[in-house]
Amino acid sequence: MRTVDFAGREVPTIGLGTWNMGEGRAPRSQEADALRAGLDAGLVVVDTAEMYADGGAEEVVGDALAGRRDDAVLVSKVYPHNASRHGVRAACERSLARLRTDHIDVYLLHWRGRHPLSETVAGFEALVDEGLIGAWGVSNLDADDLRELGQVPGGEGCATNQVLYNLTRRGPELGVFPAAAASGMPIMAYSPLEQARIFDAPGAEALGAVAKRHDATAAQVALAWTIRNGRVLAIPKSASPARARENAAALELVLTHEDLAELDAAFPAPTRPAPLEML
Ligand code: NDP
After folding, report:
1. What is the overall mean pLDDT for the chain?
2. How large is the angle between the packed helices 87-99 and 56-65, nearest 10 degrees?
3. Which of 17, 108, 159, 200 could cross-link with 135 by S-S, CB 3.0 to 4.6 Å?
4. Which pLDDT value is given to residue 39?
5. Residue 158 has pLDDT above 90, yes or no
6. Cα–Cα nearest to 219, from 203, 239, 204
7. Domain residue spans in the chain?
8. What is the pTM of this model?
9. pLDDT tens track for 56-110
10. One CATH from 3.40.140.10, 3.20.20.100, 3.40.190.10, 1.10.10.10 for 3-200+227-252
11. Alpha-carbon distance 262 to 90, whole Å?
12. Residue with the nearest Cα to atom 16 of ligand 1?
């Protein structure tokens, strides 16, 4: 099983997303079951945010982790408008109550807003000192923002940058990835299935062809591709226990040079840097 050092813990490079959970699209108990199925299959990182369903997704995570908090490395995110020196504390306490836990393992700035990075980092560091969070990171920061963060007092403590990355969104390979590698941080890849649009995207027939060779599914190939370099942790979301298990099994799928070449031809790598995309 592939793992990566994530905020001081060795974790599998596939985790569990939760956007759209807690909105009633699927029964809440089924969503929690799907997260538990992923944990049972060996996944560890659970990603959520105060934004998702206005806290409803954090409540689903609280359900899923009841009685098994230590099985997960729990990631949540603060809204940019709450990311002032003191705002992060209040937001974190609200998240902890919904998650029904006493600590978040990795707390992320969801995207860059009006509060200076220096204030947010100072707020995060205070939460680390108090033990309310284990580590902190960022999301949706482009390469220039990451370099700026590195200059902020305490900025070198950033544990990860969570960005949009999948076969149809390869821009980070030329911008964010080298910047993150320079500071030694792993990347979290969000929407690794392009919110299920990847199955119908131009080039999807290559996904199908590679999947057939491995007796795997297109989703598993897309995930195995996303984590292929060992420094990326993909966090697919599924409200289905069976799909959560299917996604976890992608940790064992190793793509060959032939597979990678076929996927490269169908989903070309970027040739020049472009601004980071976000959903
Ligand atoms: P994903 O790329 O993970 O796609 C989720 C969709 O794919 C759902 O419709 C799901 O349906 C479907 N799906 C999941 N597994 C399978 C499978 N094996 N076969 C077929 N379909 C499947 O999109 P998300 O946008 O949810 O991204 C993942 C996570 O990343 C989020 O949940 C969130 O935690 C995080 N995120 C972070 C952002 C940020 O700004 N930091 C932005 C966006 C996402 P079903 O549930 O019915 O299985």
Report:
1. 97
2. 50
3. 159
4. 98
5. yes
6. 204
7. 3-200+227-252
8. 0.98
9. 999 999 999 999 999 999 999 999 999 999 999 999 999 999 999 999 999 999 9
10. 3.20.20.100
11. 49
12. 243
Q: How many helices (H) and strands (E) does the chain have?
A: 10, 9
Confidence check: pLDDT of 1 > 90: no
Query: Rounded to the nearest whole angstrom, what is the distance from the C-alpha of residue 104 to the centroid of ligand 1?
Result: 21
Task: Render pLDDT for 202-228 as a digit per residue (tens, 0 to 9).
Answer: 999 999 999 999 999 999 999 999 999
Which ligand 1 atom sits closest to the C-alpha of 238? 46
Distance 239 CA to ligand 1 centre (A): 9
Q: Whose CA is nearest to atom 35 of ligand 1?
A: 190
Q: What is the Cα–Cα distance from 230 to 130, expressed in whole angstroms?
A: 32
71: closest CA among 108, 100, 46?
Answer: 46
46 C-alpha vs ligand 1 centroid, how far in Å?
12
With contact defined as beta carbons under 8 Å apart, do 49 and 40 qualify? no
Q: How far is the CA of 195 from the centre of ligand 1 (A)?
A: 5
**Position 217, amino acid:** T
Residues with CB under 6 A from ligand 1: 17-19, 47, 110, 139-140, 162, 190-196, 219, 235-240, 243, 246-247, 278-279
